[in-house]
Amino acid sequence: MEVNSIGKGIVIDHIRAGQGLKVLSYLGVDTSKDTVALIMNATSAKHGRKDIIKIENLTDVDIAALGLFDHSATVNVIENGRIRQKIHLSLPETVKDVIKCRNPRCVTSVEPSIPHIFHLVDAEREEYRCEYCDEIVRL
Ligand SMILES: [Zn+2]
Asked: Domain spanning 94-138 has what CATH number?
């Protein structure tokens, strides 16, 4: 299947094989309404097996959150059948309400209205630090 088989939307490429379904549910895509193609275990010259997701008419996704989930993936924004923008995902510097702090004494555990904010401390080890209690969380 070719990238340009959709006129407008996004194509998420190079998703780690087997992760496509999780990414779909993570994005909150409504599969009863949106036109979605999930290709699982496609062969990739560079990466071995991969999953690919195509979502028609959707161009607005939370790139930062998606990077946290699978930072090896690439997001192609398609307009008029062409790639308008190609985004290589990376781990975001700061994430809000994606990772939860596991420290029971952390203010976020006590006070549910406080957002869970984490800062990247080590991209290679995929470690994040809690804004409030300095708890380190590995992805
Ligand atoms: Zn905390």
From this structure: 2.30.30.20
pLDDT in tens, 3-14: 447 889 999 999
Name which CATH class applies to 3-88: alpha beta
CB neighbours of 122 closer than 8 A, spacing ≥ 6? Answer: none
List beta partners, residue 74: 13, 88
- Centre of ligand 1 to C-alpha 18, Å, is 31
Name the residue ranges covered by the structural domains of the chain.
3-88, 94-138
pLDDT at 111: 93
H/E stretch holding 83: strand 82-88
Nearest to 66 by CA among 19, 30, 33, 136: 19
State the distance from the centre of ligand 1 to the C-alpha of 118, rounded, in angstroms: 8
